[in-house]
Specification:
Length: 435
């Protein structure tokens, strides 16, 4: 940071000054003690810096970028010509596009105190972790600076009374933590059906800038009690990435999701012989029908590649996805196919690929979900889904030592009532073991 650099310069000057006096001391006679140095304090006074700019003789105006507001509009009040803005736009290329001032972002103008209020610098924060400095006098240029991010380990525990989201916010934690926790336990916990009394405990690393939470670096360990059943998640590095395992070293991920949407009910099951509600005759129904409101997002049950995405006869708008050599799934009667979903598109598990509708042969909004295992259509509700691989047997002993230490730390976190809650419990980062 610039402030630090300035301090270094001043400390350096002070040292130089003291050394000069020391070196000269012998010439005054050896017995003489080193004279007390009288320092003109104003010499050492730091100028007030604003984003690194000395502002003692300037004023600072701040504001928020309004919808559709551009730089020339903001700076026209501060004696900056269109020509200068054009130069700035040219010189700022590759640093930050001055035409992309995001509405709602904070900005500051450092300007002269006279009636012209000529701008010296324009400082803009495109995100909470970075800022762009546009220098407007002498030479016109732009610089993108990153703020220092502080990582703090935090622990929290709560019993869910209303929602997971509220329980996390009640503890002064970030909503960003909710999504991460949902991702960790996506296979174990049905987050659409959280029970009152479900509990969770977390050890995680929070990122802050100037005391404001800007991100979650990682969840190191988590515990979730869902419908009375306990689940642990321990972050542990594998060959490719850090993944989550239970206390036995089993992966928490399964290869496919159970259901492709948040449904209200299953309206028709897989059957080799059922009465077709539209065609009014008995025929095989090689899929599972999930009734859900029109427009409900449909998500792919696993990573894969889109084989087909189109409108065709009785299927209506549909998408077919190949997950691996064993599994293929298909999603019918969509009101709309998801943006960018076309043959060849790579999709991630849980990604929205379309929306519930009733196109094709359907008498109400629902998703018909079809499932192929090794080329044969099977009942998606009955098929055994494989787990991802767990910790390798050669490493299991080492893993168990690590996971024990994390589960003990998790067990030790007490669930406290909201009133008793210590808003923030910063702990030493190094007392949580690292694998
Ligand atoms: Zn169906």
């Amino acid at each position: 940071m610039r402030k630090t650099r300035l301090w270094l310069v001043i400390t350096g000057l002070a040292i130089a000054l003291i050394s000069v006096l020391y070196i000269q001391a012998p010439f005054y006679g050896k017995q003489e003690p080193v004279a007390e140095i009288e320092i003109d304090s104003s010499f050492f006074q730091l100028p007030t810096l604003y984003y690194g700019y000395p502002i003692d003789s300037f004023d600072v105006s701040e504001g928020k970028v309004k919808w559709n507001q551009n730089l020339s509009e903001i700076l026209s009040k501060y004696n900056i010509s269109f020509q200068d803005i054009h130069t700035l736009a040219q010189n700022a290329k590759g640093v930050y596009d001055v035409r992309k001032l995001k509405a709602g972002s904070k900005y500051y103008v450092i300007h002269d105190r006279d009636s012209m209020q000529t701008a010296r610098q324009f400082i803009f924060e495109p995100s909470p972790t970075e800022y762009v400095v546009y220098n407007l006098v002498d030479s016109i240029y732009a610089e993108l600076e990153h703020k220092e991010i502080t990582v703090t380990e935090r622990r929290l525990a709560a019993e869910i009374n209303t929602s997971l989201y509220n329980s996390i916010l009640d503890q002064d934690a970030s909503p960003m933590l909710v999504q991460q926790l949902v991702d960790v336990f996506a296979w174990q916990v049905d987050f659409f059906r959280i029970a009152k009394g479900d509990k969770f405990k977390l050890i995680y690393e929070e990122e802050t800038v100037d005391g404001e939470i800007v991100g979650i670096k990682s969840i190191k360990g988590a515990y979730f009690e869902h419908w009375g059943k306990p689940y642990y998640a321990i972050a542990y590095p594998t060959e490719e990435k850090v993944d989550y395992f239970d206390e036995e070293g089993n992966s928490l991920r399964k290869t496919l999701l159970r259901a492709p949407l948040n449904y209200s009910r299953i309206s028709s099951r897989f059957s080799l012989k059922r009465f077709h509600p539209v065609q009014k005759r008995y025929k095989a129904h090689l899929g599972t029908d999930y009734a859900a409101p029109r427009g409900t997002p449909i998500r792919t049950v696993g990573d894969g590649v889109v084989l087909e995405a189109r409108y065709h006869g009785g299927n209506g708008n549909y998408v077919k996805i190949k997950h691996n050599s064993n599994y293929t799934t298909q999603y019918l009667h969509m009101s709309k196919i998801g943006r960018g979903i076309k043959p060849g598109t790579t999709v991630k598990q849980g990604q929205t690929i379309g929306y519930v509708g009733s196109t094709g042969l359907a008498n109400g909004p629902h998703l018909c979900f079809r499932f192929w295992k090794n080329g044969r259509q099977v009942d998606a509700l009955k098929v055994d889904l494989p787990s991802s691989s767990g910790i390798d047997s050669s490493q299991i002993a080492q893993y168990r030592v690590f996971s024990d230490s994390v589960t003990h730390l998790l067990d030790a976190i007490e669930v406290v009532e909201k009133e008793q809650l210590l808003a923030k419990i910063p702990t030493e980062t190094d007392d949580t073991p690292n694998p």
